[in-house]
Amino acid sequence: PVLHARTLQPVSGSDIDLQLRCSYTPDQGSTRIERVLASGTGARIVTSHDDICLIEFQVPAGQDFKLAHKDIDTILKRAQVRPLAVGVHNDRQLLQFCYTAEVVDSALKILDEAGLPGELRLRQGLALVAMVGAGVTRNPLHCHRFWQQLKGQPVEFTWQSEEGISLVAVLRKGPTESLIQGLHTSLFRAEKRIGLVLFGKGNIGSRWLELFAREQVTLSARTGFEFILAGVVDSRRSLLNYEGLDASRALAFFNDEAVEQDEESLFLWMRAHPYDDLVVL
């Protein structure tokens, strides 16, 4: 659904889990409403389609592949039937153009009538998943999670729009419902960064560092929070870094890289932390 900006204002401050369905065709999917920050770049919509077709154009050997791609792109733009995604395979001299079943016949007819040298083929029964949002291709966290969710999926090709507003994966088969749910959960979960400063590196402190190094990834995945080891402090010196320390190597580098710091300087450093919360251990 396309909503006015103020449509959801009555529930904006609530914790309601909200999904919208069309009353005419409630069984044909839904839109899940998530609470994300309005600022910044990244995915705002995750979408899918389980009935996608591919027009494949095999460029003859010896022909200029880039020129063929440019010619077809011009033809499709002029006819106003731009594809949802494009697969470009230089090594196979193959171009793939993705369309819904409703549009594919028109696009195929236009390309056939253009009479370009090469072989046209039609493939049906594919699926598509995409995340859409201003600058989504420049958001490393969302891109990483997108690729993580695609792991093990029958991916035909991936594509990103020239404007950087969409990242698309075309799959050899659907359905995509479980994949979309995974993308929703992964992309739009609440992000909270927790900085950790360890005071003391004796037996207990060194044992804690060993455990944290082993469990850091699991702990973050289980809680949905990102835990960052920001510092290790002993009675005289401190090893501090807002970007995070490698817990498995912090003690090894402590003697060479830690610096003497008085209590006030240490307190001011902790007070200026960039995290959502800072925990002192």
Automatic annotation (TrEMBL):
Transmembrane feature ranges: none
Record's keyword terms, sorted: Kinase, Oxidoreductase, Transferase
Any Gene Ontology biological process: lysine biosynthetic process via diaminopimelate
The keyword Transferase is assigned to this record: yes
Cited CDD domains: ACT_AK-like_2 (cd04892)
Cellular-component GO terms for this entry: cytosol
GO MF annotations in UniProt: aspartate kinase activity; homoserine dehydrogenase activity
Domain of life, per lineage: Bacteria
InterPro entries: NAD(P)-bd_dom_sf
Signal peptide as annotated in the record: none
EC id: 1.1.1.3, 2.7.2.4
Family: Belongs to the aspartokinase family.
Name the UniProt record assigns to this protein: Bifunctional aspartate kinase/homoserine dehydrogenase II
